[in-house]
Amino acid sequence: MAEFDSRGTFRKAANEYAKIQDAFPDVIREPLLADMAVKEGDRILDLPCGTGDSIVKAMELAGPAGHALAIDISPAMIEEAKEKAEAAGVKNIQFVVEDMDKAQFDAAAYDIVVSANGPFFASDLRTFLAKMWGAVKPGGKLVTMTLGRNFLTPIAGTFLDLAQIKTEDLRISTPWSVTEDITFFKEVLEEVTGGQRIKITHRDVVMDYQTADGGWNLLMGTAFRNYTLAMSPQEQAEIEAEMKERMRANRQFSATCSFNNITVTKDVA
């Protein structure tokens, strides 16, 4: 498996992903909402929106006068997002299932354009960021969040090693490595935004999952689910059992994730 299968990965991971968002709101949702600084009546574009954790909360802040377009490649993710919106009584979000490279939306139409842990899935990062920046109104902002060099450290590395040992010809593709290089990502943003001021904040978050089952579910609710797509049920069961045994033996019940939160505000013409 040379390429990352976003649609297949998040079709299987959607339920666990939604649970992670609920269990760890301080990891993605709360920092993202702080950067977004949503105002009543804001129009927001969220791509990819995942299970809708952030956009539903954002539209509660924007109120009935606001509007959101939320796009994701995974029908399972969108179904989870719709359920969250319905449970919250939020009715002003348009949910769309679409590949992020093919998504269509109006230019200069949104007060906030957000992409949390999504830009690295684009086939061409510059093209994607330019399109997202083009959707921002004058005076509006582009809010992104990317993974740093710690992504569920140390359990992720152990999982990938075991996956390649036990699964014949398994190739590891990590699309998020594209945006780990902050200098590179900043240069791309400077290019597509015409040199607008870029604010970057780094965060390291410790995720306490408390049990071996919790650690495995954490892995399977993230992009690491991708590497199980090429496994037989027996291979996956063997890796799951060994991972849990290692976590218990080492009392490894937490993992570190690092994030870079990036905000760019568009000048008013």
Blueprint of the fold:
Blueprint: H1 6-23, H2 29-36, E1 43-46, H3 53-62, E2 67-72, H4 75-88, E3 93-97, E4 110-116, H5 125-134, E5 136-153, H6 155-166, H7 182-193, E6 198-208, H8 212-220, H9 233-250, E7 254-265
Parallel strand pairs: 1-2, 1-4, 2-3, 4-5
Antiparallel strand pairs: 5-7, 6-7
Describe this structure in words.
By secondary structure, the protein is an alpha/beta fold. The chain has one domain: Vaccinia Virus protein VP39 (Rossmann fold, 3-Layer(aba) Sandwich). It has helices at residues 6-23, 29-36, 53-62, 75-88, 125-134, 155-166, 182-193, 212-220, 233-250; strands spanning 43-46, 67-72, 93-97, 110-116, 136-153, 198-208, 254-265. A 7-stranded mixed sheet has the order 3-2-1-4-5-7-6. It is globular and about 60 Å long.
Structure summarized in a few sentences:
The protein is of the alpha/beta class and 269 residues long. It has nine helices and seven strands.
Shape, principal axes of CA atoms: globular
Q: How do the strands line up in the largest sheet?
A: 3-2-1-4-5-7-6
CATH-derived topology: Rossmann fold
Q: Largest sheet, described in full? A: 7 strands, mixed
Task: Work out the helicity level.
Answer: 40-55%
Total number of strands: 7
Q: So, CATH architecture?
A: 3-Layer(aba) Sandwich
Mean pLDDT: 93
How many angstroms separate the termini?
47 Å
Structural class: alpha/beta
**Radius of gyration in whole Å, from Cα?**
19 Å
Q: Please give the CATH class.
A: Alpha Beta
- CATH H level: which superfamily? Vaccinia Virus protein VP39
| Percent in strands | 15-25%
Q: How many DSSP helices?
A: 9
* Overall domain count: 1
